[in-house]
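The material for today's practical consists of a large collection of protein records. There is nothing in a record beyond a sequence line and a structure line. As an example, a complete record with its sequence and its structure tokens follows:
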Amino acid sequence: MEAKKLKKEVAKHPDFEILESGKIHCRLSGHDIQPKLHEFNEYLKGKSYKMALERNHDFSQYQPWIVDFKGDSTKLYCRVTKQVLNRLKSVIEKHVKGKRFNKMKKELLEREEKKKKKAAKLAKVKKLAGLTKEERAKAIEEMGDEEGSDFDINDMEEMYGNFEGKQGELDSEDEDAQPVNDIQEEDEEEEEEEEDYTEVYSKILANYIHLVSIIGTFNF
């Protein structure tokens, strides 16, 4: 009777399976449990299973903001707040619900949106280069028809004037428009630079200690 109940209980939990030996195997933690209903229920309430659930959570749902931390599989990296976090469900859920994370995320998205709009305008302005004044006026008017009430003709003409006078400067600003997906690359570069400095300091310290040991052998 208990064996049937146990089988039904195990079937309710996809993280477990009954082995040929009769023991209950937890796929998440790798633990084997004796085929007894009370032991199985105790394991479900225990720290080992709860921790396994914490670690085997689907963290991909938090991308692109929360990503794997390079060099440590037990950590995750927040590209918004620049923090290293423990790879645990409760930790990440608390982090993404926090005021600081959401405020900084909103600011980041707003900056990205402004850059995209500026880049889009600049691309249209570049198309006006080489046109006569009449052709340029007609092209700007057509752009206004496409974009509707949000389009500012004076703004476009001013941008064109700047484009003619400061083409190189505008080009560099256009290149500075950085998509969200490129942020981690910068973060990783910063981490590599920090590692390089640490290695240099370690070598200097080692050389200093070696020098002191050599000097100590002389009699003055």
